[in-house]
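Risk register update: the risk of archive-format incompatibility is retired. Evidence:
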Amino acid sequence: MTKRLLRKAPYDKPKAVILLRRVLVTGCLTALILIVPACGVFTAGQKPLVFAVNLSPQPVDIQITEDGHTVAQFQSLGTNDVHPMIPINVTREVSLRVLSPGQPPVLWTDQSGLSYTLKLSNRDTYAAVVDPQGHPALMTVHRDNSPLPKLSFINVTTGTLAEVEVAPDFNKNIKAYLQNVPPNQPAEFAPLPSRPLAVFWQTAGQNFTGDYFSIQNAQGHPLLTTFENNHFYLALLGNNLNSQEKHGIIQDITPASY
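Archived output:
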């Protein structure tokens, strides 16, 4: 029998995420379009929490495995679909496997084909992300334990976002500001204030022209949203998701009480 070699998952964070943590000590994040009904009210538990995102063009099932056994599965995720958090009951390191119709399973590996594994912490949350090329990864998304609303987001454009800001209006009374945000990586959860805010972002070049993207309400203005305490949210920031005239989505990904 051939034994598969395993490799510890990388832990390096993009610079934009590090900047997010620093800026948001006194600032906040908030977001965009189409609030999906909450999945439950979060209460602190003793199990790791995992949510899933499919950014590939194919529908997928995402499996978390421990010693080759499936311990959690996110089924039938379409393009840009998000599955809310679920608690995972594991004691050892886990890996990731993705199933697509008519395709062999795809494992979470490095460029040489060695499988990554990751030890999950009860104090952290994790994102199982399938990128646009169909490659899976399990990423730590840190959070604090305050009761404030929390938001993570993913840049789903094909390039780096020049700037992201959170404010009641573009470039006014900014509460959070990020630069050089890479694609396909979730930002750490940011605590939000209990006041209406919107998210604005600029692709490369827009920061020089003054153009920007935001989510608009029915009247064509940036959507202002107030988030609920003890809830988690994920925003996808792009340009025309799912070939529709919308540039981002937001979903409540709060786990059910447990």
